[in-house]
Write a structure and sequence with these properties.
Elements (H helix, E strand, L loop, with lengths): L2 E5 L2 E6 L2 E6 L4 E2 L1 H15 L4 E6 L5 E2 L3 H5 L5 E7 L4 H9 L6 E4 L2 H14 L8
Parallel strand pairs: 3-5, 4-6, 5-7, 7-8
Antiparallel strand pairs: 1-2, 2-3
Length: about 130
């Protein structure tokens, strides 16, 4: 079961150590909006590791500069894009900007399984910011 948080630009779902975003149609995910998600993740997970899944059910733009800040989140253990459309091709470019494990999936359940595997593999690491 996921806890749902509605934001002005999308919805965030949290379960255990997985954060799933569903950004609204037509949004440009810029630094300001990314900072809101980063803040939410830091408050929600504290110093616990987590994986971020972006479930691209809507069409929206991403400013790749946001990945500079995302790469600095020490407790972030992986980042995945879930898409069944052309945005998966855009994600190949986004991958170049993120310094974290990054995968692309067409199925949310497969992305969740990957996230759980990433978290299990990294259990013994230190997660202090």
């Amino acid at each position: 079961m996921y806890a749902k948080t509605k934001l002005s630009f999308g919805t965030l779902l949290v379960s255990n150590s997985i954060l799933i975003s569903e950004i609204n149609e037509g949004v440009t995910l810029n630094k300001e909006l990314s900072d809101a998600i980063i803040h939410f993740a830091k408050v929600t997970f504290q110093n616990r590791p987590f994986v971020y899944l972006t479930n691209r059910v809507n069409s929206y733009a991403v400013d790749p500069i946001i990945y500079r800040d995302v790469s600095q989140i020490k407790t972030l253990r992986g980042f995945a894009v879930v898409s069944q459309t052309l945005s998966a091709r855009n994600a190949e470019i986004e991958r170049l900007f993120l310094n974290k494990p990054f995968e692309i999936f067409s199925d949310l359940d497969k992305a969740k399984a990957w996230a759980l595997k990433r978290l299990k593999e990294n259990q013994s690491e230190s997660f202090i910011d």
